[in-house]
Amino acid sequence: MMDEGTELSLTIAQIVQRLKATHLHSQIERQAKECLHRPEIQLESLKEDVRNFLKASGWERKLQNAVYRELHVQPLPSHHAAPPEHAKEPLAYMRKAQVNWEKRILKSLNSMCTELGVPLARKRPAVEQKELANKWNEMGTDEPDLSRFRPVYAPKDFLEVLISLRNPNHDSSEEASAKSHWGLIQVPLHDRDIPQMREAYSELSLTTGQLGIDDHTHVPPDLFESEHIRIGKKVVNEQDSAAAQQYSRQGCPTGLRADLWALILNSTNEPEDVMHYEQLKAGVIHHDLLVDNLIYKDVKLTASNDDYYFVFEDFLYQVLLCFSRDTAVLEHFGYNSATPPKSYIQGKVGVEEFAVVYPPNGVIPFHGFSMYVAPLCFLYNEPSKLYSVFREMYVRYFFRLHSVSSSTSGIVSLCLQFERLLQTHLPQLFYHLREIGAQPLRIAFKWMVRAFSGYLSTDQLLLLWDRILGYDSLEIVAVLAAAVFAFRAENLMEVTSLTSAEAVLADLSTLKVMPLIQIFLFATVI
Amino acid sequence: MSLNTVPCTVKPTVTLQIGDAETDSSRPGVYVIDVTLPIGQTVNIQEISFKNYYTAYVSVRLLRRDGEGAAKWATCLRNHCLMPSPHTEEGSQDYCSVYRQQMLIEPDNVTSVRLILRQPSSAWLNFNVEDIKIHPCLNEDSEWDIPDWLSDLTQVDQLCDLQGLPDPQTVSSSIQQMWALTEVMQTNQTTASIGRFDVDGCYDINLLSFT
């Protein structure tokens, strides 16, 4: 609400402050100093010439990409009277719900700890450290006894929390009427209707070429695919983040996807990134965390059982164990409604110098968490690169899927969006499912919490995630969920119980996501 | 950023309703809040800040004292939108400010501010604005007397012949730039974290704490 000039200056100052601390800053400084020896740099026009050199050698582009990345994750400059919690989540009742949910998780973790007699964190003895270092690349061969550990929570527990969300200032006293909401989410968040989404997702329209539709074997490649690949190669050569993001809206060719996603996320694999990863690995070797067991259990229960992902089991440990040690992740709590759990070492409760965050990255994994990483294993085979991409995807998107917030990409908005789309465009189906006790969200929730990972076939999942990156929003996940119901509507109208409804929607592995989304958004009669 | 505020009294909200306030069952959709300065004081407003609580639109009227001492009401902001969609949560609990530049009239010599809040949607039980603060203009040095000899100094446009010396303006601006650069170098503090999660090598934790 400030005037535009002040807001812009503030944003610029914030970005400059953040970029000053990075390796990129020192690299550019060094380049600027070294280029002074070059003949084309004249003293009279020093500033101009150095600038031109940086532009020609690609450093300006790298800086642009870094600024673009900051704009993605930075919260908007807030009002001078607004406290920091307001930037995390503006609505008081949602903050409260998130705090209560976190308390439940902490209690659950503490009680698991005391029951099992296992500390939350301990330093590994030297022998154990050596052992782990030796089998770092094959942690999957280990068969530790994990039967005593149980996941801290599962998506359906979280769903109950979301269902019970109420705005104390909202008038819900009215009897069922035309404007009443049939679904489970009863908070009045803003959502977009199909006409608005047609504008927002115009690149997905029926007349625009798409990967996932127009690269089908029956379609001649020179109609769309060849040209699209040619443009993709050019985008990768130019190393332009913004262009890559725009390009991704129509899908990424398989051969270019890894580079394009890394570009969109500004995920580099410089020596400093590899070093950072090695530092995290050292953290895993030196300290043993209780959450490690939760991660092991999660990987064994989900990814290892999946036909597509079981081969990547070792990678998943290498990424997730390091992820838990990464304090850089703590930055995202500035715009995440969640707060990292805290503890005190050496029993010095209340003494701030002995306060630590647990786990070091502040994120407690839940059942299914490893599925956020699994699809990325198809794109990257170098652990530090895989790690870098996953971490960026987490702090931009995935964290919103398991915290209570009013954000438009947050899970609450996605659930509401899904239910509203269904109620507006498939009212008969929604009504029928409600009557038989099969609220649609109870089936679709698990898909949305994982952004469909593990439910779609991998190539389709990657096409979906192309669009999440391209549009910088998780909204498309809610649209797909509604589109799936629309696709199986005929079968669903005939079922008479929740279990049979779930059976109809149990197997999504044959679905083609782009045609479904396209038809739902652009061919639905409004 | 004007963080100083003027002490003022916020009167209790008055509802505007058609019909009898006591017997009418529907909730009011318009509230009026008066904010008055202590008697005799006036203020030149730079900014009015407040925290929204489900108000959709706000209009602001000012009671200004003109040259002769008479007070007149005038509208300085008409139907400013705080919630783009009154039925949904967007903007409902945001911190907002109305700046001098946005106002239709000059907010000078103001003795009283009237906020007219509107919420057309029946979805909400209550609406209000909280923490209303009036920020005055920062006074320039207009109150200080400039000694006579200062005003006798040479005016800029009366510079004498430079005789080959560089223009003082460019010299002073480049000196200022260099000074700014040295300041930047000195304050080049990094916000990067080191990455250690333990305290002196120790990370033995038994229980999490709730505050």
**Overall average pLDDT of chain A:** 91
Strands of chain A, total number: 4
Order of helices and strands of chain A: HHHHHHEHHHHHHHEHHEEHHHHHHHHH
User: Can you summarize the main beta sheet of chain A?
Assistant: 2 strands, antiparallel
Describe the strand arrangement of the main beta sheet of chain A, using strand numbers: 1-2
Report the sheet-strand fraction of chain A: under 5%
Supply Rg of chain A.
Answer: 25 Å
Report how far apart the termini of chain A are.
35 Å
Largest sheet of chain B: 6 strands, antiparallel
Descriptors for this entry?
heterodimer, A: 526 residues, mainly alpha, B: 211 residues, mainly beta, 6-stranded antiparallel sheet, 3-stranded antiparallel sheet, 2 helices, flat, Rab-GAP-TBC_dom (chain A)
Topology summary:
The complex is a heterodimer of chains A (526) and B (211).
Chain A: H1 4-20, H2 23-34, H3 46-56, H4 59-73, H5 84-88, H6 92-116, E1 121-123, H7 126-134, H8 155-163, H9 194-200, H10 225-238, H11 241-248, H12 254-264, H13 271-286, E2 287-289, H14 290-301, H15 313-324, E3 342-344, E4 355-357, H16 383-396, H17 411-425, H18 427-435, H19 440-449, H20 458-471, H21 475-487, H22 489-493, H23 498-504, H24 513-522
Antiparallel strand pairs in A: 1-2, 3-4
Helix pairs in contact in A: 10-12, 11-12, 11-20, 13-15, 13-16, 14-15, 15-16, 17-18, 17-19, 17-21, 19-21, 21-24
Chain B: E1 9-10, E2 14-16, E3 30-36, E4 45-53, E5 57-65, E6 71-81, E7 95-99, E8 110-118, E9 128-136, H1 148-151, H2 168-186, E10 208-209
Antiparallel strand pairs in B: 1-3, 2-3, 3-8, 4-7, 4-9, 5-6, 5-8
